[in-house]
């Protein structure tokens, strides 16, 4: 049986807790094992449900049931949990198991509340007595050890007695006395330490029967050893050392053990270790007897001494006070009564002592065997309990399975419920769709009905309106008819009256004529002399008749007038009819949507007002911006300089073979430079060199440039003239360099400038500006002014005078034709006229155009009625005569005079520009030195903006003249003249 238990115990699954009977471990490792079991039991409790029957803790291994089933599951779990489902008689077993695990976790000496059969009460008592001893005030290791040994021993005996195998009454009594001190000690150790007996060893009074103490322990010890070390049950591993030959003796085990230093007995059962301890002190670690189980050494408590042989035991069992030296071997040293603390001298009956010990140990052995048997019985019962527990768990598992099945079935039901619900939902959704469709159809039908109703209502209203309009029309027509009728009646009455009157008159006249004729015939018959008188009377009557006839004609004319009135009335009637129709249409229109029309009209009116206000604001803003633009524009022009010079090189003609070497170094970037390679010069040493002349201007136009490109550069100056500045643009250069082409050709500066001015003036009209533009075209030939717009035959005859207004700084031309530029086409006429006049002049004096300076003067006077501003500007576009040098021209006679005058005027122009650059304010400027500068007095200098084009011939033959022109232009460029002033008056 024991072997079976030993084999069975380790094979227990960790999740199954050991019953209390077999649990009490004798080694820490066993405790640990139980602790582990406790932990695993705790875990398994989670798996199986709590032992106390609460299933509110959801088993961790179970899946989470649906919400619907949670409560049911909990309830079911509560019903089918270990407590609820277990048989009533198994509930204590569960409690016992639980208590055991708890004890195991805390230690082997904890109290057990097990209700397991057999020895439960004694174990409880033992545990409690141990605890009591701890708090009883017994100090020192010896006393404690003895006390524990005593308690344990009493415990064993009490178990035996409980099982009905109690061997002696004294032991029972002793157990009863020691019961409160029995703690859960299963290590029995008895020790005596002679050295300590004086102070520590305490023996109950009734145990100090000297007569019963064994005299020697040798033989008994052997017997004890042999008796307790039966194979398979117990083994004596330690030594038995009697405390003294004179130690207390008795016929029971207590008496024997009182004389021992220590006795430890352990069961060989794997699951239990029983130790019996006797009271008495045993300080010596070596003086102990241990009955130890076959546990591995690691399971044996450390206090257990190593096993000794039997002969050694014999030696050790010899009573002795102390093993430490003769000094302590005082046989008369008193023992101390543990209860009274009386010092007593133990009397050992050495002869009978071993017999007593043997006998007592025999009894003890029997007790232990009985105890083992009891333990076996307990184990069987435990197994039974465990099996019942297994059955119980099986039943729980089965219940859980059934619960699981139920849950699955519930899940299945839930799924089916969900599918049903989904179907119902789908059907509901479909029904809703149908209902929505029905509602929509119904709604549409209602809308249709309403529309039909409104349409009918609208038809009815329209019909009523039409009827009302028809009624109005009929009333109106009735009134018209009535009026017409009245008119017709009036006319008929008048006609009738007139006819009656005419008829009456005619009848009256006829009657009178008859009367007269009767009277005449009577008188002719009566008086011959009176014939002439009668004749004259007749003639008078005929005259009267004529008068009457004329009166009749007048009446007829009156009638015609009346008929005209009638036709007029008819026309008026037709007009009224048309008005009636228009009114009817208007009535229809107004009645159709009078409110919307009114609203739309109001909106339109409001928007129109807003638009007008916005337009006024925009115009005001435009005016302000225009003023600002003018200001900024002229600031820019001032920054650029009031006299600017640009160079233009004309292309070579097909017939021209020797071009000069003219380069444009920066034509790809700024186009401000031109370089001319001079003629070859041979030095005295015979070296031929060529000089390279480079010039820089505000802008350089190459041979490929077009007039439009050139005009872009001067357009801002033209704008300045419109803004109230005097602007002078002139072309300077030798004959044939392209001056006329640039200035007066069909797309030259003059037509372009006038076109821009006209367009700009038109644009400025919306800003309140009104411009008056007058053009004059004069030439200066041989220091005389000629009007190019006058008659060609008057070209050299009519004296043209130039007047200056110093206050206004304006120039006026007398005896010239001024053409109002009311359209761009007028410029073409001007240019054609000028060209024709110069052509006529040319026939007289050969190439007149090259021999004179032509000046196109455009006066611009603007007024702004909104702001009250006024501006007066003049644009002078000057085509100068060719600038040949005298020695090169080889001119003679008239040609020489022309050339001299040209050079003079050009020289004076240079002088004026130079003087403007050098002079301070108020200094003399030699305008009067030439007709040209005099004419341009207020267009050159401080009050003007000047632009000079220096025209360059590309021919090598003209190279010297080209260089001269470029030098002159450079001189002009380097001249700084004063700031231009705007000719405006507020
Ligand atoms: N940029 C140009 N492109 C093409 N041809 C040009 C250009 N400039 C001038 N010409 C031509 O060169 C010739 C001479 O030009 P233009 O008569 O304008 O010179 P000019 O300096 O006015 O001479 P003059 O002093 O005798 O009046 C003309 O036939 C003209 O068409």
TrEMBL record:
State where ATP binds. 733-740
Superkingdom of this protein's organism: Eukaryota
- Show the GO cellular component annotation of the record: microtubule
According to the UniProt entry, which residue ranges have a biased composition of type Basic and acidic residues? 173-184
Query: Main localisation, per the record?
Result: cytoplasm
Task: Spell out the protein name for this chain.
Answer: Kinesin-like protein
Q: Where is the composition biased (Low complexity)?
A: 118-133, 283-298
Question: By its UniProt entry, which Pfam families does this protein fall under?
Answer: Kinesin
Family as reported in the entry's similarity comment: Belongs to the TRAFAC class myosin-kinesin ATPase superfamily. Kinesin family. KIN-14 subfamily.
Question: Where is the organism placed in the taxonomic lineage, from the top?
Answer: Eukaryota, Fungi, Dikarya, Ascomycota, Pezizomycotina
Start-end of Polar residues biased regions: 26-43
What residues does the Kinesin motor domain cover? 642-975
């Amino acid at each position: 049986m024991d072997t079976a238990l030993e084999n069975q115990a380790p094979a227990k699954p960790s999740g199954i807790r050991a019953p209390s009977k077999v649990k009490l471990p004798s080694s820490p490792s066993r405790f640990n094992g139980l602790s582990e079991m406790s932990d695993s039991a705790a875990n398994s409790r989670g798996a199986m449900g709590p032992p106390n029957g609460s299933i509110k803790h959801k088993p961790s291994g179970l899946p989470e049931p649906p919400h619907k089933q949670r409560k049911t599951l909990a309830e079911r779990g509560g019903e089918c949990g270990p407590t609820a489902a277990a048989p009533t008689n198994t509930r204590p077993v569960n409690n016992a198991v639980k208590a055991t695990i708890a004890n195991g976790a805390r230690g082997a000496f904890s109290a057990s509340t097990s209700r397991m059969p057999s020895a439960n009460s004694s174990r409880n008592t033992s545990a409690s007595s141990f605890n009591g001893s701890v708090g009883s005030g017994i100090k020192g290791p010896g006393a404690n050890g003895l006390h524990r040994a005593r308690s344990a021993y009493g415990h064993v005996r009490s178990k035996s007695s409980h099982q009905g195998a109690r061997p002696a009454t004294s032991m029972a009594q002793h157990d009863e006395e020691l019961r409160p001190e029995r703690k859960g000690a299963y290590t029995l150790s008895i020790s005596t330490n002679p050295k300590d007996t004086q102070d520590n060893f305490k023996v109950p009074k009734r145990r100090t029967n000297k007569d019963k103490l064994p005299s020697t322990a040798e033989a008994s010890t052997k017997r004890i050893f042999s008796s307790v070390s039966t194979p398979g049950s117990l083994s004596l591993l330690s030594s038995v050392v009697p405390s003294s030959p004179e130690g207390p003796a008795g016929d029971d085990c207590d008496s024997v053990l009182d004389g021992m230093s220590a006795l430890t007995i352990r069961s060989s059962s794997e699951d239990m270790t029983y130790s019996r301890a006797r009271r008495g002190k045993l300080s010596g670690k070596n003086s102990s007897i241990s009955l130890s189980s076959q546990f591995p050494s690691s399971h044996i408590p450390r206090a257990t001494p190593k096993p000794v042989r039997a002969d050694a035991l014999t030696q050790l069992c010899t009573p002795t006070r102390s093993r430490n030296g003769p000094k302590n071997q005082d046989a008369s040293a008193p023992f101390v009564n543990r209860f009274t603390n009386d010092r007593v001298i133990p009397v050992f009956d050495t002869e009978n002592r071993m017999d007593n010990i043997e006998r007592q140990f025999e009894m003890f052995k029997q007790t232990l065997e009985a105890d083992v048997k009891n333990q076996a019985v307990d184990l069987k019962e435990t197994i039974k309990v465990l099996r019942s527990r297994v059955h119980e768990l099986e039943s729980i598992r089965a219940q859980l399975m059934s619960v699981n099945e139920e849950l699955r079935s519930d899940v299945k039901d839930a799924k089916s419920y969900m599918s049903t619900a989904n179907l119902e939902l789908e059907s509901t959704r479909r029904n809703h769709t149908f209902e929505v469709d029905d509602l929509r159809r119904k709604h549409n039908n209602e809308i249709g009905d309403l529309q039909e109703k409104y349409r009918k209502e609208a038809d009815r209203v329209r019909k009523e309106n039409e009827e009302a309009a028809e009624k109005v029309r009929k009333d109106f027509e009735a009134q018209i008819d009535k009026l017409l009728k009245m008119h017709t009646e009036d006319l008929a009455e008048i006609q009738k009256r007139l006819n009656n009157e005419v008829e009456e008159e005619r009848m009256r006249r006829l009657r009178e004529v008859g009367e007269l004729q009767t009277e005449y015939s009577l008188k002719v018959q009566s008086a011959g002399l009176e014939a002439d008188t009668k004749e004259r009377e007749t003639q008078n009557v005929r005259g009267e008749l004529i008068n009457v006839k004329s009166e009749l004609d007048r009446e007829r004319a009156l009638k015609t007038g009346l008929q005209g009135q009638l036709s007029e009335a008819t026309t008026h009637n037709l007009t009224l009819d048309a008005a009636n129709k228009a009114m009817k249409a208007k009535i229809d229109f107004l009645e159709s949507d009078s409110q919307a029309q009114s609203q739309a009209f109001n909106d339109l009116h409001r928007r129109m007002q807003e638009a007008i206000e916005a337009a006024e604001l925009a115009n005001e803003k435009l005016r302000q911006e225009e003023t600002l633009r003018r200001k900024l524009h002229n600031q820019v022009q001032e920054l650029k300089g009031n006299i600017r010079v640009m160079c233009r090189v004309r292309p070579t003609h097909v017939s021209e073979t020797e071009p000069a070497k003219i380069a444009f170094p920066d034509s790809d970037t700024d186009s401000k430079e031109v370089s001319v390679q001079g003629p070859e010069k041979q030095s005295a040493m015979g070296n031929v060199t060529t000089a390279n002349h480079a010039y820089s201007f505000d802008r350089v136009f190459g041979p490929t440039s077009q007039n439009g490109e050139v005009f872009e550069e001067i357009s801002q100056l033209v704008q300045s003239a419109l803004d109230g500045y005097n602007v002078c643009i002139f072309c300077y250069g030798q004959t044939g360099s392209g001056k006329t082409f640039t200035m007066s050709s069909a797309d030259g500066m003059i037509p372009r400038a006038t076109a821009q001015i006209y367009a700009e003036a038109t644009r400025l009209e919306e800003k309140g500006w009104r411009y008056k533009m007058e053009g004059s075209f004069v030439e200066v030939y041989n220091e005389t002014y000629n009007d190019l717009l006058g008659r060609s035959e008057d070209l050299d005859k009519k004296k043209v005078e130039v007047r200056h207004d110093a206050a206004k700084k304006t120039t006026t031309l007398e005896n010239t034709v001024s053409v109002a530029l009311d359209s761009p086409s007028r410029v073409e006429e001007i240019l054609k006229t000028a060209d024709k006049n110069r052509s006529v002049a040319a026939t007289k004096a050969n190439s007149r155009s090259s021999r004179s300076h032509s000046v196109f003067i455009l006066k611009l006077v603007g007024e702004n009625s909104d702001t009250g501003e006024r501006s007066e500007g003049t644009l002078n576009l000057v085509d100068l005569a060719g600038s040949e040098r005298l020695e090169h021209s080889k001119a003679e006679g008239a040609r020489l005079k022309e050339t001299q005058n040209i050079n003079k005027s050009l020289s004076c122009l240079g002088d004026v520009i130079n003087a403007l650059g050098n002079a301070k304010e108020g200094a003399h400027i030699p305008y009067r030195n030439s007709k040209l500068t005099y004419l341009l007095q207020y267009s050159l200098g401080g009050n003007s903006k000047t632009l000079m084009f220096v025209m360059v011939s590309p021919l090598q033959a003209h190279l010297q003249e080209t260089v001269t022109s470029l030098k002159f232009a450079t001189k002009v460029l380097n001249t700084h003249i004063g700031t231009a002033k705007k000719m405006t008056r507020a």
